[in-house]
Design brief:
Outer membrane efflux proteins (OEP); 417 residues; four-stranded antiparallel β-sheet; 8 helices
Length: 417
């Protein structure tokens, strides 16, 4: 049922991408994860865990051993009746059957199951660590395309502004109040804009091709990447990096192995039955011995594990301390990265505020120079300089806004959210 629902949701998402030409960052992350070959190991890890747990649980099933010996066996006694000849048989057959049923194994099976589960979780956590870097690569590609799209849109606005001024200059030239060279200067700027747009379109295509390969889905050139909304709630998020889950399960595995060592110190108690069957049997006068049956409780206690007990305890403490040091080192480095990212976020916030102020000023200056040019006080070169200054201010604002968003998702990624 889960696979069916996932397929339906994936199909709806794919349909919306193709028809409406829009895709979100979260969709790209999900599809990249599903398309990544390593994700198939999840099912393999689960299957391995289930089979191993099943095998461990079979330790309490009855055990039956059968031994059959046939051939010439010397040394078996034979007693005949008084006055009769003792019978002898060259060929004898002895069969032995042993039945064992474990009642208590000192907790060995339980500890083995815990170790199996912890080992499977470690493999999953290692897989999550590998997939962690995948998400960061998707983010970089997505925001790279987003930045290019914003730059292209701004270039189109600049081109419209230049063409609007060109029409005004053409009218002025016809009226004899402007020079034809002014039109040529605007045409040069329009060509420059077209060149930049062509370069940006090529870069966008390259980014989209890599992103499409990662999500396993064709992305049409006209697809619109939805710009994520700015949300400052990420600052309060806890650290949920997959490495922390890895360290925790490493501790679980160490403790489970320690419990296995402890279980080996205890005796194993069970029910035992042994049967010996002899053919053709051993004669004792008027009776014949054909079988011997023994039943009762069994106790198996290996004392050799007691000699290693103290060293095993120390090794457990050492291994737990190693994991603790690794976790503390990881948290220290991660907190440093998060602090640095937070400082960069504060920097981009300040830059965005300054960009908005600069854009307001430069837009006013450009408008003033348009009036000056119409009144013959300013040249076309001076006006185009102010148009380019306004465009540069808009480009800086767009770039800093996208960079801020990139840092937001970088912060989320570094904190595992």
């Amino acid at each position: 049922m889960k696979n069916i629902l996932r397929s339906i949701l994936f199909g709806i998402s794919f349909y919306s991408t193709q028809v409406f030409g829009q895709i979100t960052l979260e969709e790209c992350q999900t599809k990249a994860r599903e398309n990544f070959p390593l994700i198939q190991q999840y099912e393999l890890i689960e299957q391995t865990r289930e089979y191993t747990l099943s095998n461990a649980g079979k330790a309490f099933l009855p055990q039956l051993d059968v031994t059959l010996i046939g051939g010439v066996i010397e040394g078996l006694p034979s007693f005949g009746a008084p006055g009769s000849e003792s019978s002898s048989t060259e060929f004898n057959m002895i069969s032995m059957v042993q039945f064992n049923q474990v009642i208590w194994d000192g907790g060995l099976t339980k500890a083995s199951k815990a170790a199996t589960t912890a080992n499977a979780e470690i493999e999953k956590a290692n897989l999550e660590v590998s997939l962690y870097s995948l998400e960061e690569r998707v983010n970089n590609l997505f925001f790279g395309v987003l930045l290019i799209e914003e730059q292209i849109a701004q270039m189109e606005i600049l081109k419209s502004t230049l063409q609007r001024n060109m029409k005004r200059v053409e009218v002025a030239v016809e009226n004899g109040t402007a020079f034809k060279s002014d039109i040529d200067e605007i045409k040069v700027e329009v060509i420059n804009v077209d060149q930049k747009v062509a370069e940006l379109q090529f870069n966008k295509k390259a980014y989209l091709n890599v992103l499409a390969a990662m999500i396993g889905e064709t992305i049409p050139p006209k697809t619109k990447l939805e710009r994520p909304a700015i949300d400052d709630s990420f600052i309060a998020l806890e650290n949920n990096r997959p490495e922390l889950n890895l360290y925790q399960n490493q501790e679980f595995l160490i403790e489970a192995k320690s419990n296995i060592d402890k279980a080996m110190l205890y005796p194993k108690i069970g029910i035992m039955g042994i049967g010996t069957f002899i053919q053709p049997g051993v004669d004792f006068g008027t009776s014949k011995l054909n079988n011997i049956l023994v039943g009762g409780l069994s106790l198996n206690w290996t004392l050799g594990n007691l000699y290693q007990n103290n060293n095993n305890k120390k090794l457990t403490e050492i291994n737990l301390q190693k994991v603790k040091v690794q976790r503390e080192t990881f948290l220290f480095n991660t907190n440093l990265e998060l602090t640095q990212t937070q400082q960069e976020l504060d920097k981009f916030k300040t830059l965005i505020d300054q960009d908005k102020e600069l854009l307001t000023l430069k837009s006013g200056i450009k408008q003033a120079y348009e009036v000056k040019y119409e009144n013959g006080v300013s040249t076309m070169s001076q006006l185009l300089d102010k148009v380019n200054d306004e465009n540069a201010a808009k480009q800086n604002l767009i770039m800093h806004e996208i960079q801020y968003l990139m840092k937001v998702y970088q912060y989320k990624n570094k904190s595992g959210n």
